[in-house]
């Protein structure tokens, strides 16, 4: 064996070894990161997230996309829970309100909020003023409700306006989990057709999972051709479109306070017990 051959062999072994070490390190880092995605939320302190995209969906609704600290970070929000957002109203006073992202922890690197902005709303003002590059202060998770697959056989849901987002989060989590067979029956009320949020996504769920998900839209001011409900959500609509009272079902509600109050009265009159009901 000559010297040159031995030297070449050494270099080859060295390079081969370095590549192997690197491969193991990258593999370990990948395994670690895929097993333990970085959670972005802090329950004790507000954290700032950068607005990277703002998409106007209608005259008073926009979808806000916020960046998470790294492309593989997750928000870290359990299904059924929400976040607190802090901002300033038109008077410069601090305001904190709850919001439920339409993204789940299966969406990495970013999270999205669909926000309805009211002309006189305090936090609405803050969102209306937000521009790409601005930061939003967020704290969480928050909330008394936490969803576990198999918790109930079926959910009934009554949502009004922007109260759809907690329902959307729970529904999406159920439908996107092939092992979760929970059924979801949603009644979604709005004033006009244009007010309906996330309609494309909701109709997509109904088309893709017809045996697991049904949706019944109710409008105060329906368009001329309309096959949904008309007026306010009635006792009869709940009876027809939600699962009947039983120990293995639950009816969730989220909407403006007068609607929540009316729904609670209807549900109680229909025989649903307090264990079967939850208000976000
Ligand atoms: C769990 C949960 C999740 C939620 N998720 C979302 C979400 O994803 N997206 C979303 O858009 N909303 C969501 N909401 C609603 C949200 O928290 C706020 O209630 C909403 O954004 C309105 O807040 P605001 O401060 O802008 O309005 P507020 O200032 O509280 O006003 C609310 C309403 O009262 C009216 N109003 C205000 N001031 C007056 C006044 N002086 N006189 C008469 N009327 C007045 C406003 O025009 C508006 O119609 C959620 C609520 C809950 C409980």
From TrEMBL:
Biological process annotations from GO: electron transport chain
Pfam families cross-referenced by the UniProt entry: FAD_binding_6, NAD_binding_1
Cofactor(s) it depends on: FAD
Cellular localisation: Mitochondrion outer membrane
Annotated FAD binding sites: 98-99, 114, 116, 123-124, 165
Reactions performed catalytically: 2 Fe(III)-[cytochrome b5] + NADH = 2 Fe(II)-[cytochrome b5] + NAD(+) + H(+)
Enzyme class: oxidoreductase
Gene Ontology MF terms: cytochrome-b5 reductase activity, acting on NADH
InterPro entries the record matches: CBR-like, Cbr1-like_FAD-bd_dom, FAD-bd_FR_type, Flavoprot_Pyr_Nucl_cyt_Rdtase, FNR_nucleotide-bd, OxRdtase_FAD/NAD-bd, Riboflavin_synthase-like_b-brl
Start and end residues of each FAD-binding FR-type domain: 44-148
Domain of life where this protein originates: Eukaryota
Keywords, sorted A to Z: FAD, Flavoprotein, Membrane, Mitochondrion, Mitochondrion outer membrane, NAD, Oxidoreductase, Transmembrane, Transmembrane helix
EC annotation from Swiss-Prot or TrEMBL: 1.6.2.2
Claim: Mitochondrion is one of the keywords in the record: yes
Family: Belongs to the flavoprotein pyridine nucleotide cytochrome reductase family.
Protein name in the entry: NADH-cytochrome b5 reductase
Organism: Citrus clementina
